[in-house]
Amino acid sequence: MFQKVLIANRGEISCRISKTLRDLGIASVAIYSEADEGAKHAKAADEAFLVGPAHVTESYLNIDRIIEVAIESGCDAVHPGYGLLSENSEFVQRVKSAGMTFIGPSEEVMKLMGDKAAARAFAIEAGVPVVPGTDGEIEGEDAAVAFAEEFGYPLLVKAAAGGGGIGMKLARKEKQLRKAVQECVRRGESSFGSGRIYLERYVENPRHIEIQVFGDSHGNVIHLFERECSVQRRHQKVIEESPSMMMTRFEGLRERMCDAAVKLAKAANYTNAGTVEFIVSPDGDFYFIEMNTRLQVEHPVTEAITGLDLVEWQLRVAAGEKLPKSQDEVQTCGHAIEARIYAEAPFKMFMPQPGRITDYKEPSGESVRVDSGVQGEWDVTPFYDPLVAKLLTHGEDRTQAIERMKAALGDYVIGGLVNNIEMHKLVLDADAFRNGEVHTSWLEEWIKDVPQG
């Protein structure tokens, strides 16, 4: 096992990784920017080093400086967390070239799954269902329009190198399609350095359901069941839960989706933690959309229903050990719900609301978990994602998990900062959510009709 691990991240996920390292007796090294000096995640680690100014490109994406810190502090491994450099294949190569272990999959599979068009083609070859669309990438507006004339609308234009809901546009007619192609090419070039795009049939009112997978270097790949992530804004998740109510409506759906996820991971010789994401139609048909080659934001949901520590699993697998459990040994218990607490204004198009926290008190109680990266008298800056915390509750069933979440939200105090706690309370009481009838566009449609007050 490792002696010292650098955490190449910030905020709540850095705190989360530090906890498991501490539990395993492994020394931890945090990094921080000038804007994060004195941050909770820096205090949570055994050591912490400044890596640059506030802007992310000069600090948390500064590969040279991060590698330098890892070497100088004597680390033998690097954990990337999620976001930032977690799916950057160059960073993986640099870590390995410096003689350290990268806690995640190989750079080869990261490159493959990071290219959405290539991942789609790979899924087809592996026998995993994908949304009907172009066979590969498509060039230019005219080619897109020609495809649409034969294939039909609505279509989703996607940046081949995109991710996190960025570089996706819906088109229901030619004028919208031409504009969508232009925007996705431009966004792909600015955000990912590539203007390549492809087209898919737009599935109306889909559910977003993902399967947690884990592989080791001994050829073992298993799944850790599903997470439902259909409550979203701007294609980004806000509430996640497990198990999904969809699984009780269509016989054998869970088994088919989990089998498909494992099949894909095995075909890619996947190691460490990964998530295979699908959309599911109202009729129960499911389609692969992407694979995230890292630990997910919402991994605590899986930890709650399985009783496992996924960060510990990551460390053990990266150290060359076999998966701690076989597929048959992984069991689930109860229901878990996670609400992402953001510094944003839900009733103003979910706009980020950076500001200063003047009073802060986290909820506690039976089956309540809070993963946060903030503290009292702390600034949520405009430089980074406005995630304040992840609030999770677990219950014997969905009803109990929801009631515990409502109580925990009622006890959460975040003074001085605009946030989405009240929105979460309203969502939990909404008939569509209670009845398990939400889809990926539901939140943005529903909130328009919610009285503000």
From TrEMBL:
InterPro entries: ATP-grasp (IPR011761), BC-like_N (IPR005481), Biotin_carboxylase_complex (IPR050856), Biotin_carboxylation_dom (IPR011764), Biotin_COase_C (IPR005482), CPAse_ATP-bd (IPR005479), PreATP-grasp_dom_sf (IPR016185), Rudment_hybrid_motif (IPR011054). Pfam families: Biotin_carb_C, Biotin_carb_N, CPSase_L_D2. Keywords: ATP-binding, Biotin, Ligase, Nucleotide-binding. PROSITE patterns: ATP_GRASP, BC, CPSASE_1, CPSASE_2. GO terms for molecular function: ATP binding; ligase activity; metal ion binding. Residues 1-448 form the Biotin carboxylation domain. Residues 120-319 form the ATP-grasp domain. It comes from the Bacteria. This is Acetyl-CoA carboxylase biotin carboxylase subunit.
